[in-house]
Every structure is written in structure tokens, then in C-alpha cells.
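=== RUN LOG ===
request id: a7f3
mode: sequence -> structure
chains: 1
length: 457
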Amino acid sequence: MTEMKIVVLLKFFRGELNPFDGAALECALEWGADVTAVSMAPPSAKDALENLTRLGVRAVLITDPLFAGSDTLSTGYILAEAIKRLEPDLVFAGRQSIDGDTGQVPPMLSERLGREIIPGVIEFDGGRIQTRSGAEASLPRGAIVTFERIRNLRFPSIFSKKGEVEVWDNTTLRLDGDKCGIKGSPTRVLRSYESTVGRRNCTFSDAGSFDALIQKALSKKTEKTAEDATLKTDEIYYVGDIKKVAERYAERAIPLDASGKTSEMFSRELRSLGARVVLFESVEKLRILAAKTAVLTGAGLCADCVSFRRENGSFIMTRPALGGNVTADIVSDAEMAFATVRPEGKRDGEIVFAIGKGAVPYLPEIRSLAEKYGATLAATRSVVDAGIIPYETQVGLTGKTVAPKVYVALGISGAVQHTSAIAGAGTVIAVNTDKDARIFDYSDYGIADDIKNLFKE
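=== RESULT ===
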């Protein structure tokens, strides 16, 4: 039997390998495949790739000044052409990068290469996998497969030696310069700044006041904020359960039905409608459709947007960036602008208890406390990635948006991906031993104490 050839796509951020990509590489190595590690990066990444050759992989660095500034559409074009040269049986990649956090490139590669995409692998045993959606299957030859953080990349043997890194620039790839780098990128960052979505004025209290704070929050009347109509654009098409979001930012919000439609069919429909702005509900199926359709239409695609506005005649899309430390304003220079968004949180429960890494040791006690208040349990991505709480409970830009009357954040640090998803909560109560934790800037009440003190009678 011929050895399986796998290309693993890698990204480095501040000199460190993206851990999702590291998991993909480890799975390829476990399988005993013929592995080629490919990274599109500046020349400075060569040393990091050279270290990976000690694991026995072939390393290819794709770099050229022409490629600098590429957005996901341009990056997908460049990587697709490189993959064609390598002719692998499978392509592995992390589900997302920790800096961009978009997950757009793999489905774009799927469209460009005509390969099936299998997203979100959470269990891997050679040729058999289980995905985040619950599907179990054997890996079909030719697929593009994305991985959650399910493995830690092994260390090389102390006896291993470094190999050579192949450097492919555009004299090797011979790509169309108009499709590369800034010139070939329909989206660009206008500005970056610290996120203030959902910021509140926090009043600190002690663990003994926990019940009183919840009762006070439950008795509080819900207030609606006025919408600023001057921020609206004329017309937005939308797909999925995001009618309220589309209506907030457009004079006319027009629904589209994408069920049963291929990316080719959907692209033709958008062109026939003359659509300029299209919002997609940020669920796996529609995220993939948005990325594939962007390839066919040349649309600028922005992932997990938290707000929109009209500025100097342009449609501005705002999203977290750089691992959630900042917020970025993105504009599309293409005829169409696409964005994925979370639906507005539904008030389907009075109280939500959300569990972060710091609360995991107290999970049984938290379950009992939640039962006492009739609260729904939720969790951060790190907790669900660890398999402690089911994925459907995840709150955040890659999970769900919630808007209960009371949101209790237990042991949660407060990354922007999480705080932007709870902005619609009536009252936020945070419990964390670190008084300087970011979550307190997005809470109405803070308890800087050990969680165990909540359970004292």
C-alpha cells in the first residue's frame, strides 16, 4: 500500500506555532504519513520550520514580498496553487489561527481545489475521526480536514538532525500578482483599538453578598437602548437566524434561503440580486458557505463581527483580532461585503452560570448552586475544548451569544471573544480571584474571591 501523503498547513504567531496547527501536525505524524509542513510566512519563520524538520517532515516556506498583506482570500489563492504542486492525498490544518480566529482559509481551499472539507475534528484515530458536529467517519482521500486542539505536538528526539527548508517564492509558484498580497485582498484593516463592547462599571462586593446580588439583578427592570439610525446602510441581505441583527444595521433587511444550495448556485443568486452586503449566521454550515461563495464572487469576508456602521460611504465591519486583545475595523473594497455574525442572544433563561478554567475544580458545587437558582450552565471555549462541558454550552464568538437577565461568570478571565457575546445580558456578576481580571471591566458586580467561598452557608 502506498504511504499516505499529507500536507499540513502551519501558521506562526509571534514566533510560536499556532496550537491548532500543531494538533493537526501531530495527528499526521501519529498516522505515520509522508508529511509536508507548509507555511506562508515572512522569511523569519524559516528557523521555526527548520526545527520542525527534526520531526522527519518535509518543510516548505512560501514567502515573497508580493505576498505580504494577503487577507484570507489572497492567502487561499496562494496556498491552493502550492498544494496543487504537492499533490497530497489529504490536507490537514488547525480549525483556526489564534491571531485571526476566522477559520476561512480551509473552506476557501476546498472551493478552489474542489476537495471535500471536514471541519472541526475532535477525535482522531488514524483514518477514523469524529467531528465537533458529532459525525463519525473514515477520512476520504482528497479531503481538507481541520482540527481542534486535540493534541500537543511532540518534541523531537535529542538525536534528530535538522533538515533543509524549501523556500518557494513567486519565481517558483508563478502566480498572478493581481491576486496576491494587498493588491489581491478585498478586505483591509482601517484601524485597531482596545475593545469596549459590553464595557460596564463594576461595583465590588464579597462572596457573602452573592445571593443578594442575584436577587437585586432579578428585580431590575430591563432597559432598551435607542438605536442610532444614522449608522444604518441602505440594504442588507442575510442568511440564517439573524434577522434582528440585519434590521439593526439596515433600512431594508432581506432574508435569503441557502438550504440545499451549492456555493455556485448561491453565488449566481447574489449576483442576480445585485447584493452588496450579505450577513451569514455564524454556524458551521453557513460559515463554510460564506467562505466558498467569497471565492466565487471575490467578496471581502469578515468573520465573527460584533457591529457594523456606515462611514464615508463604506460599510465598516468590526471584529475582535490578534487573539482577542484588540478590536479591528475592516472594510471591503470589493463589490460585495460578506460577514458572519452571531444571532442576538435570546432571553430563554433568567440566569446563566458560566464556567471558566478557574471554576472547573468546583464543577459539582456549581451544578448544585445552579440548580438552586434554576440557572442554565454555560462555559468558555477552553472548558469545552477540554471535554469538561458539552460544546453546545459554549458562550463566545465561536460558540453562542446569550442575553439572560443575570449572567454569572465564574473563573472567567474575560477575553473579548467571550465578553462581546454577553453584552446583551441584563446584569453580569463575575467571580474571580484576580481583581485585575478583564472580566470585571465588563461586569456590573465583581467578587474578587475564591469560588469555594460562594458555597459557605
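=== NOTES ===
Confidence is low (pLDDT under 50) at residues 225-230.
The chain has three domains: 5-179, 203-223+345-455, 227-341.
=== END ===
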